[in-house]
Known about the structure:
Helix 2 (76-85) runs parallel beside helix 3.
Amino acid sequence: xxxxxxxxxxxxxxxxxxxxxxxxxxxxxxxxxxxxxxxxxxxxxxxxxxxxxxxxxxxxxxxxxxxxxxxxxxxxxxxxxxxxxxxxxxxxxxxxxxxxxxxxxxxxxxxxxxxxxxxxxxxxxxxxxxxxxxxxxxxxxxxxxxxxxxxxxxxxxxxxxxxxxxxxxxxxxxxxxxxxxxxxx
Length: 185
């Protein structure tokens, strides 16, 4: 299985309809919904927001797609086919459609959504999937910079932080790097 490194987007025009494809890494269904909401807000005048995603969340593979009002099987399914064809995980592909006034027909929609998904994936850099774990830590303020540096080295990231008497961090990093982080604490 592979993931993508960083978000990408691309535009595709078909008979005056504009298709904008987004490929965005994600780690949970909740994160996917947040991403889709942000895209919807940014493109509130768009006619359709079709998507497909695959995430491995808590050891369970979650795969979903949505045609967003297009005829059944003409939008979300062609997008999902590209995710499965490249054996990708922890990714959402969203395709915005601004209708150009010319109907494309079922076959035209399948080709347009599929091509947009293919085009945005061609812009992506693929990396092997690594199992990620979430770790909760309590640290002193003077250790925060050191932990941030270590997370960059260990491909980790801070998911949330709460500043009180001590800093409560929720971090995510590759499973095989947890012991390395703990050795630096």
